[in-house]
């Protein structure tokens, strides 16, 4: 990245008291989190394909004993599912992550708020459907569409990604509202 | 949208091109960066399933002519990302972008260097691990921040 232009740099007065860059937490530590648990969570959340205990240990940068313990714990919590027994392999459990997000929605918002959010999200998705003249982003071939419309691939990619994001959010909101009838009494009331 | 494609499963064979925002990764990024002394605030909007995370740098790391500085983080379920660093100055701005996504002007991995992050950018190779990508970006920003004081 370019260095700042000379006229933007600190003047003599400011330089007398520069910021304490050396006291900051090193960036590698910031992005990795503070605990062993964060290392294992990062490893299993990336496990789209089944991973052995040894592979999870390597990915997390810790030993296999710790990996086995964390995997058993994550399995009990539903974060991972065991795919095979011998050798034991695990993969992340996307339905748990979705369930947790739906629960968060139900705890945080009233039904009225969820309905409003859903309306906004559906409108957004419909706008994209109209712009692309398609029922689903799966129908859009990004490079072809860009060349047909005289737009950049990057622009079309950004819109398709936003459309997919909007549909995913719509799905979460629909699940949160549908879960209403499935009995978990006394959670929420209108504000 | 129930009963068909699973929007949470990145290995879903029915998924076409592009991918939705990776809400779980964005949450993790917001959690890790929030509270670090580099940032005055770390915001996810909308909070329940963010499209991106906006990290506003503490202005104590910049001299007077810099009025605000932020890093916007967008990450997608197929591993694509776009990280945008932006500074506002008294009379100008500075932008720099690190990208991994389809493009007709560059390779999948590329950067749009400052001052105005022009298109096309420069082809590059970003690390495989998302944490290494983020660390290297934060590191580059810090190098620029230091240069304000030593220049």
TrEMBL record, chain A:
The organism's taxonomic lineage, starting at the top: Archaea, Methanobacteriati, Methanobacteriota, Stenosarchaea group, Halobacteria
Region listing for Disordered, in residue ranges: 1-22
Annotated organism of origin: Halobaculum roseum
Ranges of biased composition (kind: Basic and acidic residues): 1-16
Pfam family name, one: DUF7342
InterPro entries: DUF7342, WH_DNA-bd_sf
Coiled-coil intervals: none
Name of the molecule in the record: Sugar-specific transcriptional regulator TrmB
UniProtKB/TrEMBL annotation, chain B:
Biased composition (Acidic residues): 1-11
Entries under InterPro entries matching the protein: TumE-like
UniProt cross-references to Pfam families, sorted A to Z: TumE
Record field: compositional bias (Basic and acidic residues): 99-113
Region (Disordered): 1-25, 99-123
Name of the protein in its database record: Uncharacterized protein
Species of the source: Halobaculum roseum
């Amino acid at each position: 990245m370019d260095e700042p232009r000379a006229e933007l740099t600190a003047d003599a007065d400011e330089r007398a008291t520069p910021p304490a860059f050396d006291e900051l937490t090193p960036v590698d530590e910031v992005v990795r989190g503070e605990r062993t648990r964060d290392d294992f969570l990062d490893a299993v959340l990336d496990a789209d394909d089944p991973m052995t205990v040894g592979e999870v240990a390597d990915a997390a940068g810790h030993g296999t004993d710790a990996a086995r313990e964390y995997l058993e714990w994550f399995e009990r919590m539903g974060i991972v599912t065991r795919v095979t027994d011998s050798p034991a392999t695990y993969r992340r459990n996307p339905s748990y992550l979705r369930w947790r997000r739906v629960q968060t929605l139900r705890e945080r918002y009233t039904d009225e708020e969820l309905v409003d959010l859903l309306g906004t999200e559906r409108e957004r998705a419909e706008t994209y459907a109209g712009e692309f003249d398609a029922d689903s982003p799966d129908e859009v071939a990004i490079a072809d569409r860009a060349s047909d419309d005289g737009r950049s691939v990057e622009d079309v990619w950004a819109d398709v990604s936003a459309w997919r994001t909007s549909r995913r959010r719509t799905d979460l909101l629909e699940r949160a509202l549908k879960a209403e009838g499935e009995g978990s009494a006394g959670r929420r009331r209108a504000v | 949208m129930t009963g068909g494609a699973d929007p949470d499963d990145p290995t879903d064979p029915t998924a076409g091109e592009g991918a939705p925002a990776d809400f779980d990764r964005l949450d993790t990024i917001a959690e890790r960066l929030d509270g670090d002394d580099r940032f005055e605030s770390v915001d996810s909007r909308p909070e329940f399933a963010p499209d991106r995370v906006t990290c506003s740098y503490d202005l104590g790391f910049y001299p007077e002519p810099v009025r605000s500085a932020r890093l916007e983080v967008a990450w997608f379920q197929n591993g694509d990302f776009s990280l945008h660093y932006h500074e506002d100055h008294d009379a100008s701005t500075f932008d720099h972008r690190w990208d991994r996504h389809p493009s007709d002007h560059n390779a999948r991995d590329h950067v749009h260097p400052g001052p105005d992050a022009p298109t096309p950018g420069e082809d590059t190779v970003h690390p495989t691990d998302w944490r290494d990508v983020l660390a290297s970006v934060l590191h580059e920003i810090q190098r620029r921040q230091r240069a304000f004081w030593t220049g």
